[in-house]
């Protein structure tokens, strides 16, 4: 049976080559193909969602598009043997919100391969408080652990600290016993970042301009969501045999670095992608979050927001004015 509902839909005018978005009534018949239909209960806004809504970057590659790369909800119809009606599921990435309709509406239809069972110890709202940003932070932490880094090796630097990836990365690293330095442009957020578990605050301006190819060995590893000159400077400050997990481009997608940290200090630059990460890696990342993340810190990171305000929230997020993570309830 079909049902109509409101969704935020982005359309593109091919003549003027411009996109616009707004709330539109759509039907479950309009949903894209997939073997599982979900009643979306919660979603969130990631950097990528904000890029899609503002049109600042060509994130959306098929129109009309319902953005929302993260979904938590329950199955309302399923042709998959893996899911039955009523199952609580989450979904992150896989090109959803880019080429396949996402979570900014009451219903979504997905391929069952993209879904995960909701982790037992986290509510749907908590899963969205984490969302792709939190799950990516967990993937980054796992890259550092896979490289053999332990708390005894020294301090881990987290850049973009007040953002979604950064905030969750700090909390998770602190829960695992690591000493964390937080690089931020919002030094007024020192109390917030220390509350999450950072012991040292680094002014991001000290990392954003071109520095030396090799600098003092300060950090055993780093999680970088900023890219560009910041990542180049981070690499130059990593101790011998250290690892940097790189997942973002908040400053830029360039990397004006030299090979010196790699060839003289054996530093590893480990790339992290959340969108196409295989299912086993996703399940491990969510299990790590479920097991280790301090729920009080998660609450500290989270703000409930009204999904009707996605446009102004997207502007704020791109302008770096949103602290931590936004969660939307879908009525
Ligand atoms: P947020 O916008 O929440 O956080 C980004 C943070 O980066 C900001 O809060 C700010 O932190 C810092 N920042 C912003 N602009 C600049 C700048 N010009 N120079 C230096 N620092 C800056 O985004 P998310 O945490 O959700 O995502 C972070 C990055 O990771 C994004 O680039 C995103 O696209 C990417 N990403 C990649 C994924 C992947 O699969 N590889 C998955 C998820 C995200 P502060 O104010 O503390 O300095």
From TrEMBL:
Pfam families: ADH_N, ADH_zinc_N. GO terms for molecular function: acryloyl-CoA reductase (NADPH) activity. Residues 21-328 form the Enoyl reductase (ER) domain. It comes from the Bacteria. Gene3D superfamilies: Medium-chain alcohol dehydrogenases, catalytic domain, NAD(P)-binding Rossmann-like Domain. Coiled coil: none annotated. This is Zinc-containing alcohol dehydrogenase superfamily protein. It comes from Pseudooceanicola batsensis (strain ATCC BAA-863 / DSM 15984 / KCTC 12145 / HTCC2597) (Oceanicola batsensis). The lineage of its organism: Bacteria, Pseudomonadati, Pseudomonadota, Alphaproteobacteria, Rhodobacterales.
